[in-house]
Write a structure and sequence with these properties.
Elements (H helix, E strand, L loop, with lengths): L2 H28 L1 H4 L12 H4 L2 H29 L5 H22 L5 H21 L1
């Protein structure tokens, strides 16, 4: 398996970990009656994320942000892999992306400003550089 595919697999595992980090406290705070409901607006006064504590809400947003980032990173890995454009540079970008996504979780949870945004940018830039390197 290429380094980029290995990192993609690990990023998928990280997404699962983030889901657990968010869902366990959400179920404790809000109760399974709410979290397992169909979440119809008529039944809830406001979205579950807005009913959770500040920390759990931040974990929810960090998880959703990773879903968004993972789409672009997956595109980068697919382009690199199928285009047979893997290099040491693309591997370093992939590992940098994963490191940034790992750091992003505590940065978001603890409200590290402006570091959270800078960490996000490192992951985004790594992804964009991977895509651009495949085009050269």
């Amino acid at each position: 398996m290429t380094p980029e595919l290995t990192v993609l697999a690990l990023a998928g595992v990280l997404q699962g970990i983030q889901f657990c980090l968010m869902s366990i406290p959400a179920n404790i705070e809000l109760g399974t009656g709410k979290t397992s409901s169909p979440r119809d607006p008529q039944r809830l006064s406001k979205p579950l994320m807005e009913q959770a504590s500040v920390g759990t809400g931040r974990l929810f947003r960090a998880m959703n942000n990773h879903f968004e980032a993972l789409i672009m990173f997956t595109i980068a890995v697919v382009v690199i892999t199928l285009g047979d454009k893997g290099t040491g540079f693309s591997a370093a970008c992939a590992w940098t992306y994963l490191g940034a996504r790992i750091l992003y979780i505590p940065a978001y949870y603890f409200g590290w400003a402006p570091w959270r945004s800078l960490i996000w940018f490192v992951g985004f830039l790594s992804t964009m550089l991977m895509i651009m390197s495949a085009l050269v």
